[in-house]
Write a structure and sequence with these properties.
243 residues, alpha/beta, Rossmann fold, three-stranded antiparallel beta sheet, 9 helices, 46% helix, 16% strand, globular
């Protein structure tokens, strides 16, 4: 353990974990599974943005327009949300807490801002987990995805967790298609990922693994298998060299 890691663990967060991958790669599922473990907290930037989009505010209206067309939300808005979350967790008294940022950063600009935020707050570089899934599988997953209107649980009509009829197995809520999962929007979301987000993976791969760890994970497997590998990786030292 480095001196920076010891100091950081004494002050609050022990690690920031990034779950990266295309829409439909399983980031939300793996984030939720990891968050079941003590000392790990998951924050979905997508969920926070969708919550803001439901509000009757200028920012909410702007976000609704972007989400309904599949556009990526501007870096400034997303980074403001993440910075607020990092500062709130930095103030926690309990030590050894790890924070999962689900779906962030999505652009190289956001990755650079995150580096500056972490350095400014005295936090170690992130552990980067890349869920890699073929495009044809992503399209099939997204077009078949449904979400509970009450609790937000995710189901898939073609694979993974399925629901009985059109109701959530948890609370009986109606299952609905998210606006950004319609067929036309799915195509645009994947195109936006290729253009804007995929370079983020190169950004982290090219860092030389000096300050953090980058791991590429085969995401085209049952969630339980992926979760087992993720748990093993998360158990590694934050300074381990990536394979």
């Amino acid at each position: 353990m480095t001196r920076q890691e010891r100091n950081y663990g004494e002050r609050g967060l022990s690690r920031v974990i990034l779950l990266l991958g295309a829409p439909g790669s399983g980031k939300g599922t793996q984030s939720a599974l990891l968050a079941r473990h003590p000392g790990i907290v998951s924050v979905s930037t997508g969920a926070m943005l969708r919550e803001e989009a439901r509000r009757d505010t200028p920012a909410g209206y702007k976000l609704r327009q972007k989400l309904s067309t599949g556009e990526l939300v501007d870096d400034g808005t997303v980074c403001d949300v993440v910075a607020s979350q990092l500062r709130s967790f930095q103030g926690k008294a309990a030590s050894g807490v790890s924070l999962i940022l689900d779906g962030f950063p999505r652009t190289v600009g956001q990755a650079r801002v995150l580096d500056m935020l972490l350095e400014g707050l005295g936090m170690p570089a992130p552990l980067v987990l890349h869920l890699d899934v073929p495009n044809e599988v992503l399209r099939r997953r997204l077009s078949g995805r449904r979400q509970c209107a009450r609790c937000g649980a995710i189901y898939n009509l073609t694979s993974g967790r399925s629901a009985r009829g059109s109701r959530c197995q948890i609370d009986g809520g109606a299952l609905v298609e998210r606006d950004d999962d319609s067929e036309g929007i799915v195509v645009r979301r994947l195109a936006a990922y290729e253009a804007e987000t995929k370079p983020v993976l190169e950004y982290y791969r090219n860092r030389g693994y000096r300050d953090g760890t980058y791991r590429k994970i085969d995401g085209n497997r049952p969630p339980g298998e992926i979760a087992a590998e993720v748990r093993e990786i998360v158990g590694f030292s934050a300074t381990a060299v990536a394979a």
